[in-house]
């Protein structure tokens, strides 16, 4: 029997697909559901909203009784006439799927008329926002991307989920900077330097990199369809040791790269981190030295932050909770060399695991504020929902380790 969740921290599949489509210039999502489905998508954001509105068929009771296919046909036509975009993606909510609207037929009518329309089943009962992101990426790769000539050095970046992962923009920008730093060309798909052209260019890349389990299906599809090799990371690397190791893997897999220049870049970044950490050691010691810590984070961040705290600072994990329910086939990679890992999307269960751990500092979302206050320990907000605005400062990469240290020092001083 399925169990209910208390205060889950991810929206539904419709939300994840909607976030992803909204984050690609040239793609317009069209929500085929009741008005509340689109409104709730904005309420689920980690910090703020998507910054845009989206068209919707606005299903009412009449459509639930008699069907909403004709309403969808009308809305596709209106959207294509008003909104300038190359691809319209029809995303279905629970009501449309439960009443059995023939969404595929409506989308096919539009395609027969010369419009590029993609239809995707994203009802909330199909999973969380992370599943919606994965479904959107997979559908985009399989149904809109076509073969093209290989572009030397082009590397696809997949994994951070737009708007659902609180620091997604900052993480994608740092990863792009790192890939460019070793002499390759980043292809981020989402964000200011992504877009529909980047999505279409995924078929021309020399390599794909998946930074979380949620990019795995897409990189495998790119391999199956276009023969593009891929690398799967055990989450986003945090700090010099993990980031340097990942970049070395990327350089080795990418083919013709100036190894000497790449090595100079990696060594300079490692030197920079060491310089700053040396100047924080006294402060960290005065704040209590090595501490036991607990984390309640999605798979994008959990492994990298745990390894950084353990290997770089010498701290000990008291509880590790992964909050986004990643697919079972990816969990062994995520858990590699970590102690006991718990998986839970339920707020009460997460609070119980952390509350009984004896942790002296917590890393999680704003939902962990209550248990942090009860334990009288600092809370570092690294995940959604969060009050921390993080457009340019994420926790991944060489610079992410230093951002984490800044947050630790600040929170410890205020505690």
From TrEMBL:
Nitrogenase/oxidoreductase component domain segment(s): 12-411
Molecular function terms, GO-annotated: oxidoreductase activity
Entry's transmembrane regions: none
InterPro entries tied to this protein: ChlB/BchB/BchZ, Nase/OxRdtase_comp1
Protein name per its UniProtKB record: Nitrogenase component 1
